[in-house]
Amino acid sequence: MRTVTRSYESYDIARRVVEELQSAGFPAADISLIGRHESADNSNAGEGAGIGAALGGAAGLLAGLGLIAIPGIGPVVAAGWLASTAAGAAAGGVTGGIIGAFTSAGEDEESANYYAETVRRGGTVVSVRASEEQAPAAEAIMDSAIPIDRDTRLTDYRNQGWSRFDEKADPYRGPIV
């Protein structure tokens, strides 16, 4: 199995990617989504199920879509195995909860920090576990939605003085799309 991960500027783009992955036959159990959405910023984790139902829509985007609070990011809309790992780490007070979730999914440390910071700044990350044979199809679907260019975005972050995700930082309050 291989994990294919991409980040997107908005929750809506990521949601469409998840729908396309499911339509192509990728099991919902192998797809994860973590992202900021204006509904998450205007809610609390106790309202998670209602938010999940509203954002998931009638198609049942992903089972368990709801809100979790991640240190350094704040409330996020999340679902899937990656979200469960991040939520479990956050609930247990484990340092590097979201970083640990990404590295346990097979991402290197730099990529894990990039994805965590991207979510912190309003983006949404989609990951799918795929066999070596399925991975090219997953990449094609995910890339057709025009993900954020990782190298360009890392350069932008570094030009702003960023070096790595800081879970002790205040949640980013820039625009959420």
Overview of this protein structure:
The chain has eight helices and five strands, in the order E-H-E-H-H-E-E-H-H-H-E-H-H. With 177 residues, the protein is an alpha+beta fold. The chain has one domain (2-153). Strand 3 and strand 4 form a beta hairpin. The N and C termini lie far apart (32 Å). InterPro entries: Low_temp-induced_all0457. This is General stress protein 17M-like domain-containing protein.
Short description:
By secondary structure, the protein is α+β, with helices and mostly antiparallel strands.
Q: Biggest sheet, in brief?
A: 5 strands, antiparallel
Count of the domains: 1
Strand content: 15-25%
Figure out the total of helices. Answer: 8
Rg, rounded, reads 15 Å
Q: Got a strand count?
A: 5
Class of secondary structure makeup: alpha+beta
How do the SSEs run, as a string of H and E? EHEHHEEHHHEHH
Order of strands side by side in the largest beta sheet?
Answer: 1-5-2-4-3
Provide the fold topology.
Elements: E1 2-8, H1 11-23, E2 31-35, H2 38-41, H3 48-56, E3 66-70, E4 74-79, H4 81-91, H5 97-104, H6 109-120, E5 124-130, H7 135-144, H8 150-159
Helix pairs in contact: 4-5, 5-6
Protein name: General stress protein 17M-like domain-containing protein
InterPro entries: Low_temp-induced_all0457
Organism: Bosea eneae
Main traits of this protein?
8 helices; 5 strands; 177 residues; 5-stranded antiparallel sheet; alpha+beta
